[in-house]
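subagent[fold] <- orchestrator: predict structure for attached chain, return tokens only, no commentary.
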Amino acid sequence: MPCLSSLFAAMLLAFAGSVAAAAPSEPLVPKEAREAAEAMVARFVASWNQADGAAYGMNYWPDAELVDPSGVISRGQAAIVQEHIDLWAGIFKGSRITGKVRRIRMLGPTCMMVDFDAELTGVRQLPPGSPVDAAGVLRNHLKHIMEYRQGAWKVVAAQNTFIARP
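subagent[fold] -> orchestrator:
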């Protein structure tokens, strides 16, 4: 899995970019990769809003890993799907989400980092450590590492982070 070896480098790049005074210009993202990233976020939003575990899981490779905002690690597509099915049956039942790509960075010809922002409303109960704003919106930054395999771009690693209240 060449993309996983790039994961550490991606996290270092993300950290370095957050502390650098001026970020260097990023290389152009090929049209196919940009379209795949946008489609992934659109599927993420649609499947969340329909509480559709099967559709949600289509974004992830079978060996994917997700770190949720509370620090819980789900390993494998099936575990990621089950975590979300449980959330949609519980504290996030009836919730709605929006998402927008903020940044795409190619890490190689078959690997890219997709940063997107999400806003979640209609939450029944707040997860531990979540900073909902005055309007009741839970905001998150998500970082997904997508890898191109077998003719498709899918997520191999993901990190979800709550955005602190201003």
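orchestrator: received. Logging for downstream: The beta strands are 60-67, 73-75, 96-108, 111-121, 138-149, 152-162. Residues 7-23 have pLDDT under 50 and may be disordered.
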